[in-house]
């Protein structure tokens, strides 16, 4: 098999992949389209370089070499930029310098001082640097992306990097002449090179599309589990997290607590000032609750003007103290709309996990009942749930901090 035939076949496959990516990218979110467009451009550039190797034999040799190697180095550069854009990293203009160096190096050492060895060293160094930079971005700038498609792409680029390094060493050890032609079938490495080095644009395009699909799936999961107004976890996410913490508490014999929080007289705010102001109050309260919670706690919007906090605590009083800090933060905050200052307060009920609890819902119901007690006692207070059925009566689990004020 001639190397030119291999280059021709692979360039056609890459062009087909680029066309598929062009069609699919139209259905991607606008935030992913720049990355998909860059990957498409990179694939077309590498395909163009392969096509020049396949059909440029009638060109002046320096022109053919520059026309083939330049687009391929530029294509790898654009791949690197596509990976950066995928992770919301803005590519820098200086990143194109290696491709320029490779192009000028090929031009000089094919036209002025012909030397195959020097050309292949320069081009290989640029390729290895670009692929290494792409792998580094995928490994360390991926923002917690653990998708299989990302790992596949890392593997594909890694294969290209290792082969490029081994290839230049092999050519140097072979002692080939200065006018050696990689597009000919005179050497077994000439046939193997296009097959291995073009795995990235051929199979890598599929891996990149899978990365886009995984990213879109994760975004949909976030949308499905996040409250659109406050960006807090919604009731669905709360239920999952609550069940997990309940199971952990059962297995590890650890403690946790649930607090149900409600904005006092929220209907009056909506009726008096309008729903837009009501939404602003919800967003502000959500922000305050999140700001005054600990990293290990979870604040969720469980519906309407109601919020729920899951607290990792070993002592009941610790949970009450944590919610009391949130209550004070809301009470002391300034809620201003136009020239009107709105007084906003919250009431809360807190319930701690008991070894006798059978489900997360039991703890949630106790916290909800404590919330009703807080409302009935005058609002703007934190009530601690009582332990059910101890000695034939219900007794409080911890002192009420609001009563001491």
Automatic annotation (TrEMBL):
Gene Ontology biological process terms, A to Z: cell adhesion involved in single-species biofilm formation; negative regulation of bacterial-type flagellum-dependent cell motility
Enzyme class, broadest EC rank: transferase
EC number(s) from the headed UniProt entry: 2.7.7.65
Transmembrane listed as a keyword: yes
Signal peptide start and end residues: none
Domain GGDEF: 254-387
Cellular component, GO, one term: plasma membrane
Catalytic activity: 2 GTP = 3',3'-c-di-GMP + 2 diphosphate
GO MF annotation, one: diguanylate cyclase activity
Keyword Transmembrane helix: yes
InterPro entries assigned: Diguanylate_Cyclase, GGDEF_dom, Nucleotide_cyclase, Rev_trsase/Diguanyl_cyclase
Bilayer-spanning residue ranges: 6-24, 36-56, 62-82, 94-114, 120-140, 152-176, 188-210
Pfam families, alphabetized: GGDEF
Keyword line: Membrane, Transmembrane, Transmembrane helix
Protein name: diguanylate cyclase
Native organism taxonomy: Bacteria, Pseudomonadati, Pseudomonadota, Alphaproteobacteria, Hyphomicrobiales
